[in-house]
Each structure stands twice: as structure tokens, then as C-alpha cells.
Amino acid sequence: MDLDTVLMSRLITAMTLGFHIIFATLGVGVPLMISIAEFVGVKKNDPHYKMMARRWARGFVITVAVGVVTGTAIGLQLSLVWPNFMQVAGNVISLPLFMEVFAFFFEAIFLGIYLYTWDRFKKPFTHWFLSIPIVIGGGLSAVFITTVNAFMNTPEGFAMEDGSFLAVNPLAAMLNPATPSKVFHVLSSAYLACAALLAAIAAFTILKKKASAYHQKALKLTVTIMFIFAAANLLTGDTSAKFLAEHQPEKLAAAEWHFETEQGADLVVFGWLNETHEIIGEIRIPKFLSFLAHGDFNAEVTGLEETPEKERPPLWIHYMFDLMVTIGMALLGVSFLYLVFSMIRKWNELNKWFLWSLLFSGPLAFLAIEFGWIYAEEGRQPWIIRGYMTVDEAATSSPYIGLMFFLFLGLYIVLGTLCIVTLRKLFRNNPVEEELEKQYPSIEKGDE
Amino acid sequence: MSYELIGITVLWLFLYGYLIVASIDFGAGFFAYYAKISKKDHIMNQLISRYLSPVWEVTNVFFVFFFVGIVGFFPETAYYYGTALLVPGSIAIILLAIRGSFYAFENYGSKQSNIYMFLYGATGLLIPASLSTALTLSEGGFIDEKNGEVSLKYLELFTSPYSWSVVFLAIVSVLFISAAFLTFYAARARDYPALKLVRIYALFWSVPTIIASLTTFIALSQHNERHYEKMLDLWWMFGLSVGFFMLAIGLIYQGKRYGIAFISIMLQYFFAFFGYGIAHLPYILNPYITIVEGATHESMGIALIVAFIAGLCLLIPSLVLLLRLFLFNAEYVKGKK
Ligand code: HDD
Ligand code: HEM
Ligand code: HEM
Question: What is the ipTM of this complex?
Fold first, then answer.
């Protein structure tokens, strides 16, 4: 088979997934934010929070549309680009893929209802209830698709002989060892990233205009959520690392440049490798890798030397891991400081420094998601299904794949641009002050 | 019933569901564009956007359900269709992407531009045309497997009368189904100017629909003798289909009971589609995949069916809620809410 078709297949998949994941993350996280804002608004009977839910929902409709079309693209592309992989996957792991469709269905139906029924119910809580299925549907789609990816990392639940399946246990395949840590980390990072993004938007408006009551409330709410999930994310990330140490040691070892098995291993942060594969210019945290991997500073950590040379993942994933973790720490730090400042009267949490760092948190959180996925997927190389099928074996043999790559590249450029243009227009032409007055005329003037 | 047969029945039902709901959507795109260039958009567009806005995502899920489900129940389809359909499949994805996203951008974002309306109309016809290729391929003769490499015979595909008659049938069916639905919807909304217009569309497109059905039948007899013979054995299903077609046209012509007329059209397609499908069996892809040999492992098949039933228990009440709030809520349909 031509190597170029394999490379192009990988690129087209990476591109589609890298694009989809942005919108998928929004699809998972933003409904929770909308639901929380509406809940607070109804509970306190505060029009500001209700308006937040409305405005976020309006933007959400646009991103969902892109999520749905790119998701449809990746769903079909998996069969088109990786026919051999999908043939195996179809036999063993199609259950969660199938269940995912139900989650979409559920979400799509209630989203349609939610968006068109803002003022149709007598009790405001009835409308809020409709947001719950959307939150659950979005969350479940992440859970189901992540189990598929987990299966690719630690395949289980089947017995194979000469390329045919003797027995298949769909539930065991779905609940493979990688599932728990991956699912929780994907969920917590999606909620974190969406809270950070909405906080960034509020911070941006405050920087540009003045700090209206609406935007201050929005900032406070989103940064609080951001802090909670940044903390949760640290925990789930740590669990993921412990999972890797046990079940996929080569991925962790490659990411940490941990070449020899040893006890009390140091954590290597950044740095680079010279020609003889020595690490230079790094920051070393003594014994911390042992702690990250096993929760014990003196535990033994498996090195890359124990993996056959041909089955080692590329070493550059080190940077992906480090960048993700650095961003994770930064998000936690910023949101924590903000909360401390806002609790102490004399300190001003709305100073320029905070607002600027919150502004950067949003895009950085999404970068962390991209880095995390590139790390996770590259770290599985050369396998597509670890231990069973390599990437070269799985790719399509069609010679047209290169052409398709550019076709899709064009599509994503157009979609991305239009999405941003539409969102900007939508909110520019509709400033929150005007809308508040229109929707809730009774609101006190001095309040804004 | 064996699990393979349940699997293919469920998938076929969903494909049928997609055929109906997507046709309404695709055809509406064409009519909206046509109304725009013939300066009748003020009559039509309110009607179209009120129905389509809340449901377009649901339409898409029908399709996703089908292609995810078929890989689950019959994994070999991924191998053959996946390889052969890389190019037409990618083109269909791009068309779907343009349509779905532009729909949201324009509807929630800004005013309707001419380029958008054109794309909305054009994709409405091109998507069914490109998707119908998959059905054409399933008849066999267009996919080749040599030394483990699967390829699509483009020349045969583009010069086959059968393949073109399927494309033609797909397009006119889309327009016919859509016009009939809009007639029903306009009547419900008591939107008489729109009703007058779309009723004519429905009557107009019924003629090419029946012609296309016949030509496809004839072209199939040339292309796949076995399938054609089996369809003749199921003559009563096609007879019922024609019967319902006549009933629907009669009602629309007399200008009454548009709801029943639309249901008859659904039944018309139901019988034709299932007659075609049953006769197609046991092949999913002639001659490479049959439902028995191509089926997934039994434990997976059963798990999928269980998941399916559980899923339906969740979905049906939600769908009923959706329909009651929008389609069957007279106030909403009339535009009062
Ligand atoms: C906002 C995004 C974000 C942030 C701040 C972090 N992560 Fe992460 N990480 C992800 C987003 C993410 C992800 C995109 O969700 C990944 C990709 C694959 C996966 O399962 O989750 C991931 C993967 C991933 C993996 C690989 C799991 C596997 O392949 O099975 C590990 C070990 C960690 N993360 C650990 C951490 C640690 C210790 C962090 C410290 C703060 C951290 N992550 C922050
Ligand atoms: C949505 C988040 C995901 C992102 C951003 C992502 C990213 C990537 C990237 C960057 C690659 C290229 C790796 C390389 O070949 O060098 C890749 C490969 C791949 N991913 Fe993922 N991935 C995601 C989730 C998934 C899931 C859930 C599945 C399973 C259904 C999956 C299936 C694949 C396949 C089949 C390949 C090609 C084989 C390979 O190169 O390893 N991915 N992905
Ligand atoms: C972990 C990574 C992923 C997450 C969290 C995720 C989540 C989501 C979400 C939230 C949506 C929007 C659904 C909606 O709002 O209706 C979506 C759409 C979609 N995703 Fe992904 N996704 C991921 C990766 C993938 C992969 C690898 C596939 C391919 C199998 C895929 C297939 C789809 C499909 C087919 C849709 C469109 C569904 C529809 O028509 O409504 N996703 N995804």
C-alpha cells in the first residue's frame, strides 16, 4: 500500500477531529452553563441571569449546527477513510456508537423544544426543566464516543482467531480499562473549557466597555464554575496519568521522556533532546513522576526501553502533555485568585491584569483540549487498535484521499469563518442593554 | 425473526423515515429558492421556516442513525462501501455540511442572501441525487474487488441508464413529497395564498414521479434480473403503492383532506420502499455482502437491538412532545406563538 495514502488518511482524520472537537466540546459544556444560568435566574428572579441563558443559547444554536455537520462528516469519514478499522470496530465496539446516536436524537429534540418555548409556560421552572435533557444528551454523547476511543487504547471484550471473531462481549468492550479515567477527564475538561470561554467573553466586554451589572454577574458566575471544574479536571487528569502508568506505560513514558525504568522517577518539564537523546534545558521536579504515576514518590515507573522500538510513540508528544498540564494549572490559578480577590472587599477583582488573563483563559482552554487529544492519539501510535491493528493496515486504499483532504480543508475554512462572522453579527447588532430593556421593561435603570 | 432480519428491518425503517423527513426538508429548499426567483417568496417563506426551524437537526439524526447502524449490524459494509464511496461519500458530506450550517447561519444570523438561497435550493436536489448512488451501487456491477482492493467503476456508473433513472426518481420524489407536505401544512395554518401555490406544485410533480417509478422499474429489469423478478413476485406491494398514490392525488385534486392525502403518500412510499427492500434481500451489496454472512456477531446484534428498544422508549415520548408543541399545535402553526 502506498504510504502517502496512509499519511493523507491520518491528516484528514486529524483535521476533521481537531475541528469537530472544538464544537463538540461546546456542545457538551455550554448546555450546562445555560442551565445553571437559567436556574439561578429563576431562583433569584433576576432578569440578568435569565438573559445570560437566552443569549448563550442563541449563540449555542450556531455552534451546534457546525458540531452536527462536522460530526456527521467524521462519522461517515471513519468508514470512508478507515474501512478496515471500522470493520473490526463494527463487530466489537459499535454498541456505544449506536447509543451515541440516541443521545444526539434526545438532545436535538429537546434543543428544538427549548429554543422555541421561552415564554410558553406559566411556571418558569418548566422551561428550565427542558434544559436538563440537553445537558444529559450532550454529556452522554461525550461518554459514548469516548468509550470508543478508550477501546482503541485498551481493546477488550473479544476473542479473535485468524482474523475472525470467536466471541464478542459488547459491554466488556465498552467498559474497557481506559473508559473511566478518559470519560471523566473528557467531561471535566469540556465543562472547564466552556466556563473559561464564557468568562473570557465577559472579561472582554468589561475591558472594552464598562463593567455593567450584567457582565459582572456573568463573570462571577462563569469564573466560579471554571474554578470548580479546573479543580475537578486536575483530579481526573491525575487519574488518567495513573491509568496510563498501569495499562499503557509506553504512552506515559514517551510523554515524560522517561527512558529507563526506575524508582523515584523525576518529572521532566519542557526541555529538549540533543542528538544522543539526552535531555537538556529541562525543569526537573524530583520524584514527582513516580507520584503522578502511582501516588507514591518512590514507586517504580516503567521506562520506554521496555517497549519494542517499532512500537514506541513519537517523542514530541512530550510538549503536548506539558502544554496541556501548564494550561490546566494556569486556569486553576487564575480562577482561584479571582475568587479570593472577589471575596475580600478591599481588593479589586476587576483590575486589568485579571481581566486580561481571563481573556486568554478561554482560547487557552481550547488549545489544551487540542493538545490533550493530539497527545492521546499520537501516544497510541503506531497502533489504531492497540496490539491488534496498526494505522497502516487500517487506512483506505483509495488513491483519491489526497484530493479529499483539500476539499475538506476548504470546507472547514469556510465553516469556521462563517461561524465567527455570524456570531459576531448576532451579538453586535443586539447589545445586551437593549435586549434587557425589551424583554424585561420593569428592570431598574440604575441596575445596569 | 433472526437478529439479522430484525437489524435490517430496523435500519430500513429508519432509512424510510429519513426519506420522508429529509424529502420534506430538501424539497422545501428548492421551493423556497423557486419562490424567490419567481418573486413569490412573501407567500411561501414564513410557512417553510416555521416548520423547518425546530426540526432540521432531527432530520439529520435519522441519517446518522442509518449509517452508524449499518456498520454496527453489518460491519462488512464499512469495508466495501467505505472504500468504494470515498469520493461520492465525501461530496455528499460536503453538501450536507453546507446545507446544515448555512441553514443555521442564515436563519439565526442575518437576512437571507441570494447566494444562500441558491445553495439551499441546489443542495436540496444534489444531496438526494448523490445519496441515491449508494442504493444504485447495492445492485452490483459497479464495485470491483481485485487482490483485496475495492474500487468503484466510475465509467459504468455514469453510463448506466439504471443509475440515472434512480437519480431522477430521487429528485422528483423529493419534490413531490415535499409539496404534498407543504400543502397539508399550509391548510393547517389556514394560509390560503400559500396553499393555492403548493397544491399546484404537488399536482404538478405527481406526474414525473409516476413516470420515474416506471422507468426505474424497467431499467432495473435490464440491470439486475434477479431483483426484478423478486419484485414482480411482490406485485401486491407495488399495487398498494400505486393505489395510495391515486388516492392521494384524488384528494389533493379535489382540495380536501390534505392530512389523509399526505398519509397516503407516506404509505405509497412505504410499500414501494419495502417492496424494493424485501426483494433486494438477502443481498446488502450484490454479490459481496448478504445479511447472513455479513452480519455482526450474535451477541453484538442482540446488544444493538436491546439498545435500540431502550432508545425508542426514550425517544418516542420526546418526539410526541415535539410534534405536539410544533406540528400539531394549531396556534403555533398559524404563527401566533
Ligand atoms: C481543558 C483541557 C485540559 C486540561 C487543562 C488538562 N487536560 Fe488532560 N486531556 C484533555 C484535556 C485537558 C483531553 C482533551 O480531554 C484529553 C485527550 C484525550 C482524553 O482522554 O482527554 C486529555 C488527556 C490526558 C491524558 C491522556 C489520557 C489517555 O490517553 O488515556 C492525561 C494523562 C492527562 N490528560 C492528564 C492531565 C493532567 C495531569 C492535567 C493537569 C492539569 C491535564 N490533563 C489538564
Ligand atoms: C474528538 C476528539 C479527538 C481528537 C481531537 C482526535 C485527534 C486525532 C488526531 C490528531 C489523530 C492523528 C494521529 C496521527 O495519526 O498522527 C487521530 C487519529 C485517529 N483517531 Fe482520534 N481524536 C479524537 C477522538 C477520537 C475518537 C473518539 C475516535 C474513535 C471513534 C478516534 C479515532 C481515530 C482514528 C480512527 C484515527 C486514525 C488512526 C490514527 O492515526 O491513530 N479519535 N485523532
Ligand atoms: C470525545 C470526542 C467527541 C465529543 C465530546 C463529541 C461530542 C459531540 C457533540 C456534543 C455533538 C453535537 C451533537 C448535538 O448537539 O446534537 C457531536 C456531533 C456529532 N459527533 Fe461528535 N464528539 C466527539 C467525537 C466524535 C467522533 C470521533 C465521531 C465519529 C464517530 C463523532 C460523531 C458525531 C456525529 C455523527 C455528530 C452529529 C450528530 C447529529 O447529527 O446530531 N463525534 N459530537
Answer: 0.79
